[in-house]
Amino acid sequence: MFSISTRAPLSSIPTSDAVPTSYHRAADERKYQMDIDEEYGEGSSGELGAAGKNIVGPGESITSSKDYMRGHGTYVEDEQVVSSVAGTIERVNKLISVKPLKSRYTPEVGDLVIGRIVEVGSSRWKVDANARQDAVLMLSSVNLPGGVQRRKVEQDALKMREFLAEGDLLVAEVQAFFGDGAMSLHTRSLKYGKLRNGLLQPLPPHLIRRLKSHFHHLPPPCGPTGVDVILGLNGWVWVSAGTKAAVEGDGQGQGVGGGAEGDGFGAEGVYSNVNDEITPESRTAISTIASLIRLFAKYHIPLSDSLLLEGYQWISKRRGGAESTMISDEDGERLIGDVLGVDVSVDA
Amino acid sequence: MSTAVSPSERSYIITGLAHPTHPTRLDGRGLHQSRPIFISYGDAPQASGSARVTLGGTEVLAGIRLEVSEQGESSRCRVEVDVTPQAYPTLAPSALTAMSTQLSSVVSDHFVPSIPSLPIVPQIKYFVPHLHLTLLSNSGNVLTTLILAARAAFHDLRVPKTKVISSGAADDVDEQKDLSGIKAAVRAGRSGGRGKGRGTSGVEWELDLEGDGTMPMPGRETLPVLVTLNLIPDSTTVFLDAGLQEETACPDRLHVFFDAGGKVCGMRMEGEAGLDVDRIRPLLKEAQGVSVELFASLSQIATS
C-alpha cells in the first residue's frame, strides 16, 4: 500500500562548481564550423544538428558578433555572441538564436493546441494554452450547433457559457496573432471542439513535434474500441476512448475539414459535457497509454503514435493481461531499451 | 498548470473511481495505493532537526529549532506553515496566507498535543520546539505530506542532554568561549533566570557534554500519522492519496490522525457535503487499518 524510501539530503550534495562563473567556454570547433560559408543561405540548423554540436549552455560563446547578429536567447559580450539559455542553436542567414530546451509553448500559425477556458468575455473566450499569454477564441471563430453556414446572432453572444464555460477543455488551431503576441484560435472544423471521454496529460512542449496529423487512433488490441490520442503542440496531450468518427477522421488525414460529418458526430454533441459509457477495459487502456506518455516524457523522448503502439504491445506482452496499469521503474527502463534501443538504466 | 477540471473530466474521474467492480484511476493506481514516498533527513544542517518529504509531486521541507522557554512560558511546540507561491501559482498572496493559517491550525490542533515535552528543569524550564513546515510544491494530498514531514523532522531531532546543578553553585560562565547555537541559548536562558531572580526558579542547569551531547527525542516513534480518506460523491467507496485532478473532482475528504496504538487523536472533515453518521464508524475502521500499514512502513525505514 505504501512504499517509503529514504534519500540523501540535498545539502550533502557538493555545490562547488569547477567552472569559473565569468569564463566563457568557447566551443572552438563549433565556431569554425559556423564560419564555413557554404552553409550560408540554407537557413536551417540541420547541418549543424547533423554534426551533433548545436547544443549550447548558458554563458557559452557561439560565434563572433562581427559576422553574425544576435537573436533570441543570446547576448553580446566581448564581441562574442553568447548563449543566455541552454538549448539548440537556430540560424537564419546571419541571425543566430538559441531555442531553449525548457520553455513555455511558442505558438505558430496552424499549430494544433489543447486549451482550457479561463474566462468568458464579450463575444470571446480567454483560453489557457500553456503559452506566455492567454489565447483568445472569438465567438466568430467557432462552429455553433446548427451547421457551419449558420449566422451568429445576438442571442448566441448571451449564451456563450452554454457552449464553452470556464474549465472546459477544447482542441483548436492557431489562426493568427494579435499585436501583443497573443494567439487567436479557431475551431471551425468538426475535428476541433470540446473534449470528452478521457484525461489530460501535460508534458513539456518540446516533446511534441510538428507532424502531418496530431489526431491518432491506436486500434483495438489497445482497449475494446481503441484509444484516441490528440497531441497538442503546446504540450498538452488528450487521451480518450476511441470512437468510430475518429477512425474515419484519421484515415482521411489532416486538412479535410468536417470529414466525419453525419457519422454519430452530430453538431449538438459537439458542446456536450456528458461522457459516453466507458468500460473498465477501455479506462485501463487509457491509463496505460497515459503512463507510457509519462514514461517517454521522463526520458525526454519525443512522442509519436508508432512509439506508443510499440510501447503498448511491449507492456501488454510483459504483463500478460495483468490488471495494474502502473509501470515500474525497472519495466520502464527495459521498455525504453527494447523499443528505442537506448540504454537508460542507472548503473550503465 | 491550473487545477480546474472540466465537467467531462470530472465525470470521467468520478465514474472511474466509483465503478463497482473495476475502479480505475487516472494514473492506474489502485484505490488504496499511495504514490511512492521519499524521505531525506538533515536537509537543513543548521536546524536542530530537519527532513524533506516527497509524495508524488508534493514536497515539504520541515525544520525544527529548539529554544529554551522563558519564565512561565508554555512548553508547547510552535508551528508555522509556509505555503510558497510556487506551490500555488494561481493563488493571490492573501489566499496563500489564509491557507497557511488554516494548515498550521490543523497541525497544532491535532499533531502538536502528541509531542512529549522536553524538560530541562521539570516544571520550570523546557526546550520549546519551533516547527517550520515549507510547502514547496503541490500535487495533491498536502496535509498528509505535511504531517509526514513534521514526523520525520522530529525523528531527526537531536535534543541536547542537560543536567540540573544545585542552586547557587559557582559556575564560570565567562570562561565559555564558544557561545554559538544552543549554548548561547542556554546562557541567555541562564542570565534571564538570574535577572528575574533566583528565588522563583532557584535551579541552575548546564549542558551535559557526554558523548556528542545530544539524544534523540523520546517517544519519536509514537508520533501520530494522518490518514486522508477521499470520499467519492454519490458513492460509498473511498480512496487514498488523491492527485491534484482527483482532489478537484472529489472535494470531500476526511482527515483522521492516529497514534501508534491505533487510537484516533484528531479528525477533520473537508468539503461541503456532509457525512452520514452511520458511515463514520466504518470509515474510521478503514482508516485505522491504513494507519497500521503506514506505521509498519515507517518503522521499516526507521530500523533500516
TrEMBL record, chain A:
Chain spans, region Disordered: 1-30
InterPro entries xref list: Exosome_cplx_N_dom, Exosome_RNA_bind1/RRP40/RRP4, KH_dom_type_1, KH_dom_type_1_sf, NA-bd_OB-fold, S1_RRP4
One Pfam family from the record: ECR1_N
Residue span, RRP4 S1 domain: 104-175
GO cellular component, one term: nucleolus
GO-annotated biological processes: CUT catabolic process; exonucleolytic trimming to generate mature 3'-end of 5.8S rRNA from tricistronic rRNA transcript (SSU-rRNA, 5.8S rRNA, LSU-rRNA); nuclear mRNA surveillance; nuclear polyadenylation-dependent rRNA catabolic process; poly(A)-dependent snoRNA 3'-end processing; TRAMP-dependent tRNA surveillance pathway; U4 snRNA 3'-end processing
Domain named K Homology: residues: 200-244
Single GO MF descriptor: RNA binding
Keyword Iron-sulfur: no
Location(s), subcellular: Cytoplasm; Nucleus, Nucleolus
Annotated Polar residues bias: 1-19
Domain Exosome complex component N-terminal: 55-92
Alphabetically ordered keywords of this record: Cytoplasm, Exonuclease, Exosome, Hydrolase, Nuclease, Nucleus, Phosphoprotein, RNA-binding, rRNA processing
UniProt KW Nuclease keyword: yes
Subunit relationships: Component of the RNA exosome core complex (Exo-9), composed of EXOSC1, EXOSC2, EXOSC3, EXOSC4, EXOSC5, EXOSC6, EXOSC7, EXOSC8 and EXOSC9; within the complex interacts with EXOSC4 and EXOSC7. The catalytically inactive RNA exosome core complex (Exo-9) associates with the catalytic subunit EXOSC10/RRP6. Exo-9 may associate with DIS3 to form the nucleolar exosome complex, or DIS3L to form the cytoplasmic exosome complex. Exo-9 is formed by a hexameric base ring consisting of the heterodimers EXOSC4-EXOSC9, EXOSC5-EXOSC8 and EXOSC6-EXOSC7, and a cap ring consisting of EXOSC1, EXOSC2 and EXOSC3.
Family membership: Belongs to the RRP4 family.
Protein name: Exosome complex component RRP4
Organism: Dioszegia hungarica
From TrEMBL, chain B:
GO biological process: exonucleolytic trimming to generate mature 3'-end of 5.8S rRNA from tricistronic rRNA transcript (SSU-rRNA, 5.8S rRNA, LSU-rRNA); nuclear mRNA surveillance; nuclear polyadenylation-dependent rRNA catabolic process; rRNA catabolic process; TRAMP-dependent tRNA surveillance pathway; U1 snRNA 3'-end processing; U4 snRNA 3'-end processing; U5 snRNA 3'-end processing
Highest taxon of source: Eukaryota
Single GO term (MF): mRNA 3'-UTR AU-rich region binding
PANTHER family, per database record: EXOSOME COMPLEX COMPONENT RRP42, EXOSOME COMPLEX EXONUCLEASE RIBOSOMAL RNA PROCESSING PROTEIN
UniProt keyword list: Cytoplasm, Exosome, Ribonucleoprotein, Ribosomal protein
The protein's name in its UniProt record: Ribosomal RNA-processing protein 42
Keyword Ribonucleoprotein found: yes
